[in-house]
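Holo model, beta-D-glucopyranose. Inputs:
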Amino acid sequence: MSARIDQLIAATTLDEKIAQITQVDRTAITPEEVAELGIGSILSGGGGNPEPNTPQTWRAMVDAYVDASRRSRLGIPLLYGTDAVHGHSNVVGATIFPHNLALGAAGDAELVTQIARATAVETAATGARWAFAPMVAVPQDPRWGRTFECFGQDPELVAELGAASVSGLQGPGPGIDVLACAKHFVADGGTTWGTTGGAQWVPWWVRAYGGPGWHIDQGDARIDEATLREVHLPPYLAALAEGVGSIMASYSSWNGQKVHAHRWLLTDLLKEELGFQGFVVSDYHAIDQVSADYHEAVVRCLDAGVDMVMVPFDHERFRTTVRAAVEAGDLPLERLDDAVRRILRVKEAMGLLDGTAEPLPDPSVLGAPEHRALARRAAAAGAVLLADRSAALPLPSDATVLLAGAGADDVGLACGGWTIEWAGGAGPVTPGSTIADGLAAHLGPRLVATGATAEDHRPLEGVTATIGVVVVHEHPYAEGLGDREHLALEPAQAELVRAVADRVQRLVVVVLSGRPLSLGPVTDLADAIVAAWWPGSEAAGLADVLVGAIPFSGTLPLSWPDGDLVSPSRVPDPTPPPRWLPGHGLVAGRSAMS
Ligand code: BGC
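Output:
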């Protein structure tokens, strides 16, 4: 610990210490308030975008807050955080990389580091130096709506790729360029279906987005300590070895106790046993779930080891509550000082305390051609050839190709959740290249892009071709909104596959999804099946593997079920064995496993 930090802490008032551990959603605070209070951090949550949403308006928005923090009494720069989880994915015009599950399928640590580096450059170009990434959960149940954010179900794979991501974000030097945040500590991927909170928490976004959700996300991990250590902890050991500066606590519980208030997990295990020197940030509104009594919630979480609180809105209530807790002796001042020290230590490692931080790139770097080329390569590398019964792929060079399915030519459907908006969405949400664009460039007039969708088969009328390519999709979602008991493909999309099958000699089905889907009859109708996951804004990379310009090399990073998984309430009904196991993936026509 440097003398500078000691001096700073000695010069800091109680209110300034509290402000330093406060993270506020940018919609709930002005730059003037930041300057007056010396707030430690601001965030843009999923979809927390300026109007209009451009790289330049982002930069102006973030700069206004950072400049304001420099004008505060102590002049300590704030950290601006955002969910740059697959590229700087809130920003229109950013390069949107494949989600982590696709990178798990690619299984290439060097590729992950390059992507994280490009993400760091694009994020810093908007002034933000903190990415709430990487997600290092080890998902055990694909019904979880956050499966796509994870690298896979194997702890070793997640550890390797998570560390590669930390290294790319934070940079090669001894300091930190863009702060990484391994999340969500710990066992968020190990919760049990049907254990999500209930009435004790009703986040506003459940009401805002409506619809079903939250069955397993934010639930309870009912596992013993040995399983926690074996399955869910390894990625944190790897991230720590890479010097990760921040870790986000998980909304979920471990055997009934909220992680945010779990002193043994956050302090005894993470900080003392594993020696974590950075800071723990709470998740969005998460401390509110710990107790209906806000004073108690604040005290329990800070006391357990949370260092920075993602409030996110009513920062005045948070600050006055912490002050009252310290004055009443409910929260030891030493704990507050330790939290401040941890945050300042990270800011120091980033060069923010002495003005040696990496200079910020120009916002024009967002969506740079070399970043898009990298994203395109990653989209190809993550594609898994699940089946190819009659050597339908690569598409023969003399074949005519009929293309159908809404996902074939839709950037939003290829990007998935956490893209521009929190839950993502269909449509031309940001510039990019689609599968249709890529196939058109490769095939020229041999491509018949029909525009037929599951809702509208009419464009198929009178069209025939040698080969049909149908792109089916799962509609984008985020977090518990995507918790889904039945993983079957929507019946209307299966019908589209059937309609195309009647018009072609061979059929290729490409699946855009955040997890494995149970394909039912499509498995038998299709000659070849490709799992493309959510490949991002450069989905044209899938065309590169479909035509054989790049060979298929992806393998499954998790098992692919066949039929419905069984909830504990339905046990002893057996869950059918998986259709394909982790590691499965055909490479140049033969199984990668053989
Ligand atoms: C998510 C986090 C995310 C945070 C900030 C939460 O709802 O669980 O993963 O980093 O929001 O947007």
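The pocket of beta-D-glucopyranose is lined by residues 45-46, 83, 132, 183, 283-284, 479 (CB under 6 Å). The two ends are 52 Å apart (CA to CA).
Archived with the compound record.
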